[in-house]
Amino acid sequence: MDPYLVGLDLAGRRVVVAGGGTVAQRRITGLLAAGADVLVVAPEVTPAVEGMAGAGEITWAPRGFADADLDGAWYALACTDVPAVNAAVAEGADRRRIFCVRADAAPGGSAVTPAVGRHDGLTVGVLAGRAPRRSAAVRTALVEALQTGLVDDTADPVTPGVALVGGGPGDPELITVRGRRLLARADVVVTDRLGPRDLLDSLAPHVEVVDASKIPYGRAMNQARINELLVEHARAGRFVVRLKGGDPYVFGRGFEEVQACAEAGVPVTVVPGVTSAFAAPAVADVPVSHRGVAHEVVVVSGHVAPDDPRSLVDWPALGRLRGTVVLLMAVERIGAFAAALVDGGRAPDTPVAVVQDGTMRIQRSVRATLATVADVVREHAISPPAVVVVGAVAGLRPLAPPDPALRSRNAALGPVGQRPGSGVRGSGHPGSAV
Ligand SMILES: C[S@@+](CC[C@H](N)C(=O)[O-])C[C@H]1O[C@@H](n2cnc3c(N)ncnc32)[C@H](O)[C@@H]1O
């Protein structure tokens, strides 16, 4: 018989979980999200389950299962790694007419757990007989279709207003789930030059895209005009996504846009993003902090020179730091910034890494020192957008790849690391920086 798919209201109701391993842990989080009163019975539990008990989210009985544990329960999960114990839980539950899932042998229980996905107030559950990978794959595909707007689930009209969305450093997979979801609901998208441009291609034809790019020392849409556009579209009853590169509040002028909307009485929601200040170094194998190496990370804007009267940066203080200095918008004046750090006391042989177009297919990176970085940047024609990392972390290397073929390819890359081929995304690899 096919099981009958149902949604249980478990709020405030006792659910017994026998076992405290990773299977139990995965189920407990869902039960807590449903507001269940969870009793975990297990001599040992994972650190995460212990943490939930310590925080008072669940009750943990640190012992073996006893039949009386099921008294007063509405639902039970047998998740131990001992089949006889799981069978005892299922039998005890049957006697009391409590539905019970047996994690080790589904037919031995009276209920099965569907593959569950959530999206914007929807819960999707999929059962595929005894094919858990199939149900998980279908669940994931359904949720992705909802997240990307492939399935139009807009039962409620979208409220007019503005969402200020941090799109991440460029790789379209590095936007947040919430950002992606709101983008799929937009009537108007006001974009930047930086950020996940590839996502624009997936927007529905009716979505109006406004290019608000600012090219360094080149064409740029005036910030006041951007603010006006957001307000005008929202007032005309549209849902506007202001899609920005990285995080909207890290040198992104995002707060000015929020202020403009607030002044105009336009509702705004802010979705943080993955900032290029940390993501670009990360994909080039440069950690901005490392145990025993750097205990401080300072992110600095290089949009004005150190001696510019508008500068708010205390360069002598930065020069005295021992930790990591991450410079954005600093490529054109890298010589002046390096000199300012050395003047402030930083050693000229301090390692420096420069990562251009981090997370993009065309990502490149170079390594240098404070003394050499200006020449290296010029020599390799490094251009914006690029992140400069100053400090001992820029001298760290991951372990050499075990594959000899990969090792020789990396050696052949020379002083500039370049991301291989299109479609290579995600975490850094040993070839992404030298
Ligand atoms: C106006 S700031 C915006 C920063 C953005 N809000 C963030 O959090 O990443 C632009 C600067 O960010 C850096 N940047 C942005 N995207 C980058 C990328 N993919 N690779 C390297 N640097 C990037 C560059 O320093 C660029 O000049």
How do the SSEs run, as a string of H and E? EHEHEEHEEEHEHEEHEHEHEHEHEEHEHE
What's the name of the CATH homologous superfamily of the largest domain?
A: Tetrapyrrole methylase, C-terminal domain
The assigned CATH architecture of the largest domain is 2-Layer Sandwich
Shape: globular
Total number of beta strands: 18
Give the low-pLDDT segments.
Answer: 407-434
Individual helix count: 12
Strand content: 15-25%
Main beta sheet: strand number and arrangement?
A: 6 strands, mixed
The domain count comes to 4
> Which structural class do you get from the secondary structure elements?
alpha/beta
- Strand order across the largest sheet: 13-14-17-15-16-18
Bound small-molecule species: S-adenosylmethionine
CATH topology group of the largest domain: Methyltransferase, Cobalt-precorrin-4 Transmethylase, Domain 2
- Radius of gyration using CA atoms only: 27 Å
CATH class of the largest domain: Alpha Beta
**Rounded mean pLDDT score:** 89
Instruction: Please give the alpha-carbon distance between the first and last residues.
Output: 59 Å
| Percent in helix | 25-40%
Task: Please characterize this protein's 3D structure.
With 434 residues, the chain is α/β, with parallel strands linked by helices. It has 4 domains: 14-113, 3-Layer(aba) Sandwich (Rossmann fold), CATH 3.40.50; 118-148; 161-274, Tetrapyrrole methylase, N-terminal domain (Cobalt-precorrin-4 Transmethylase, domain 1), CATH 3.40.1010; 278-411, Tetrapyrrole methylase, C-terminal domain (Methyltransferase, Cobalt-precorrin-4 Transmethylase, Domain 2, 2-Layer Sandwich), CATH 3.30.950.10. 28% of the residues lie in helices and 20% in strands. It has 12 helices and 18 strands. It has helices at 22-33, 47-54, 83-96, 132-147, 177-183, 223-235, 254-263, 276-283, 315-320, 334-343, 373-379, 404-412, and strands at residues 14-18, 37-41, 59-61, 75-78, 99-102, 115-119, 122-126, 161-166, 188-191, 208-211, 239-244, 268-271, 297-301, 324-328, 351-356, 364-369, 386-390, 416-418. The strands form 4 sheets. It has a 6-stranded mixed beta sheet with strand order 13-14-17-15-16-18, sandwiched between helices. A 5-stranded parallel beta sheet has the order 3-2-1-4-5, sandwiched between helices. α3 (83-96) links the parallel β4 (75-78) and β5. α6 (223-235) crosses α7. The longest helix has 16 residues, at 132-147. It is globular. Residues 407-434 have low confidence and may be disordered. Bound molecules: S-adenosylmethionine. S-adenosylmethionine is lined by residues 169-170, 194, 245-247, 250-252, 275-277, 280, 328-329, 355, 357-360, 384-387.
